[in-house]
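---------- Forwarded message ----------

FYI, see the NADH dehydrogenase subunit 6 record below. Original note from H. follows.
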Amino acid sequence: MEGIIFLWVAWGLWIYTTFIMEKNEKGRFLFSFYLLCLICLFPYRFSILSYEVHADYLFLALLALIYMRRLGLRQKLYMLICILTIAMSYAGVGLVAIYDPVLMIIDPYVIAALLSMSLGFIFYSSINKMRNLFLSVISGTLTGEIFLSVTLHNIGFSKMIGDYLYMDTAAYMALMTITWKAVHSLNALMSSKLSSNKGEIKNI
């Protein structure tokens, strides 16, 4: 079923942020609220001009614009380059999947998620910039959805902007970001333990 990956990931993250995350953790309420809004808006869609747009797409676009407003001018320009790069690669994968699906060995939306995250890592390789990484990747794929839908519309095809398959792609990207953060945290924990063990051996 299209969109089921997104629903499972969103519900899992909402349970974590609501019941497991530390109460004094910064942004806990906002993350929980955003996830609940995405889940509630999942069944709805709107018509804008001659295009059909998913409600979650509009909500994600609004959140991306709000957070981008807080960046400095230089950060915005840098992120703009990243967003356009990801958008064009995302739309390119979508077009190849439609016109020559034989080339797609695995799910094209998984390929799009992997490619978008890889480009995001190239632009934002530091773990301290993880929020900017995810913001740029989401914004890039949101823009890529517009490029893809407009291109298909001009040649006589119709595609909902931000459909259920796109939400699955966003879920894949969220899981990749969380995995990267978890691996980095585990690596830092192991490094600190090894350092403390070396200190104990030297004291002996």
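H. also flagged this: Strands lie at 45-48, 51-54.
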